[in-house]
Design a protein that fits this description.
7-stranded mixed sheet
Length: about 450
């Protein structure tokens, strides 16, 4: 039995799965925590990866390993390959003014969408490089190469010392802000616009290529998740993790000048239009903390209140927001009355606010012509019964909840099996065990949410 391994180096933790290359059956797994914060030294990811590998029983017997990771994080290296400064993560919003400046300097959002498939927001690497150049010129001057979390981890696993050995894949490169999914080339002019100079960037390898004879191309976390759930045309994957995302496989590049839909590439040679929100599972954990209950009790409370929470609406912008692009906004609670100020109503409003935000993301994909046959609901937040039960009513379509698994790491493992096997397409593993959920739509919940959402300002 040939074995492959997949890694998910996410914002909060590192997960490693070892699976049978032919069937996808799980053999063993391990995990380790990451430090909190939006600025993390990459050495912490490396230490966590080593711990997770050991927890998974090691990788000596696997044929190939592939790394998926959080997108956009800015890893800067000097000429010797040493880290220049701690990485700025995707959810660090300090580069929001830089995003606005860069957008204007190229001529506006439509020009950026045509150039790279996305409009700069604080999460994209290109904006973080502009922040670095403006605020830490000494660090910018030392920077000889810039890469992303999965690029750096793959490089470290392969024993890389030369900057020339850095590699990445299409999906992660498409989230930098200086690689074009339509031309499949870097845009050094945009890199120079941001940083003030051109530096080394990872070589983009094919989805089924092996690096160093044993390491897969890797992927951004959402592209890996699409591989992990074996998403098909007509599926929209909604992931409720630290961030919330809605994405779908699509054959053609996307250029959305509104900036809502990011025209990313996928991990199979196609495209992965994606909408991302900053606020997802932590909306649930923070609400449970306020109420002094655990997540199971929060779910029960939410289900005990009526649809629409009698008019109580939570706009869940607790960390600012990326979609809509309001990085300095705050959350808001509307419709407070004596009869709605109860734990059950607040719990319901939190779940509905989170789901309405993601429903807006699904609608943005629909608006670009993508069919939505069903939603595949994954991520830690999808494990809450209230989320699963309310999702189809708010999304307005059937929802399929795959059995809990580490789908980002699973997708990385499937990519590793693809690369090791040398086939033209990824292997088809066993069908996912899943639960289908349907419910009558509740459009008035979306209407009330939209009215409250549109009152939110970017401070």
């Amino acid at each position: 039995m040939a074995l492959v391994a997949g890694v998910d180096s996410s914002t909060q933790s590192c997960k490693v799965v070892v699976r049978d290359a032919d069937t996808g059956a799980l053999v063993r797994q391990g995990r380790a925590a990451h430090p909190t914060g939006t600025e993390v030294h990459p050495s912490a990811w490396w230490e966590a990866l080593q711990t997770a590998i050991a927890d998974a029983g090691g990788l000596d017997d696997v044929a190939a390993v592939s790394v998926a990771a959080q997108q956009h994080g800015m890893v800067t290296l000097d000429e010797a390959g040493e880290v220049v400064r701690p990485a700025l993560l995707w959810n660090d919003t300090r580069s929001a003014p830089a995003a606005a400046d860069l957008t204007a300097e190229l001529g506006g959002p439509d020009q950026w969408a045509e150039a790279i498939g996305s409009v700069p927001v604080a999460s994209l690497t290109v904006t973080k490089l502009r922040w670095l150049a403006a605020n830490e010129p000494e660090s910018a001057a030392r920077t000889a190469a810039v890469c992303l979390p999965h690029d750096w981890l793959t490089w470290k696993l392969a024993g890389g010392t030369s900057l020339d050995a850095l590699t990445t894949d299409r999906s992660d490169a498409s989230g930098t802000g200086y690689w074009s999914p339509s031309t499949e080339d870097y845009r050094p002019d945009l890199l120079e616009l941001a940083l003030g100079k051109v530096v080394a960037v990872p070589r983009v390898v094919g989805p089924a290529d092996l690096v160093g004879g044993r390491f897969g191309a890797g992927a951004g976390d959402n592209a890996a998740a699409a591989l992990g759930v074996q998403a098909q045309p007509g599926d929209v994957v909604v992931s409720i993790g630290t961030s919330g995302t809605a994405f779908a496989r699509w054959p053609n590049p996307v250029a959305d000048g509104t900036g809502i839909v990011n025209g990313f590439a996928d991990a199979e040679g196609g495209h992965l239009p994606l909408v991302c929100t900053l606020n997802a599972s932590r909306v649930l954990t923070s609400t449970s903390s306020v109420l002094g209950v655990d997540l199971a009790d929060l779910s029960d409370l939410a289900l005990s209140a009526p649809a629409g929470a009698d008019g109580l609406v939570l706009v869940p912008y607790l960390e600012g927001e990326r979609t809509p692009n309001k990085p300095d906004s705050t959350g808001a609670l509307h419709g407070m009355r004596l009869d709605t100020m109860t734990p059950a109503h607040l719990a319901r409003a939190a779940v509905e606010g989170l789901l309405c935000s993601l429903a807006d993301a699904i609608d943005a994909l629909r608006a670009l012509g993508m069919p939505v046959t069903r939603v595949l609901l994954i991520g830690g937040g999808a494990r809450m019964p209230a989320v699963r039960q309310l999702a189809p009513a708010i999304f307005g379509c059937p929802v399929v909840v795959p059995a809990p698994s580490e789908y980002v790491a699973d997708g990385a493992a499937r990519q590793a099996a693809w690369a090791a096997g040398g086939a033209d397409t990824p292997p088809h593993w066993s069908e996912l065990a899943s639960t289908s959920v349907e419910a009558d739509p509740t459009p008035w919940v979306r209407d009330r949410y939209a009215a409250a959402r549109d009152l939110t300002v970017n401070r």
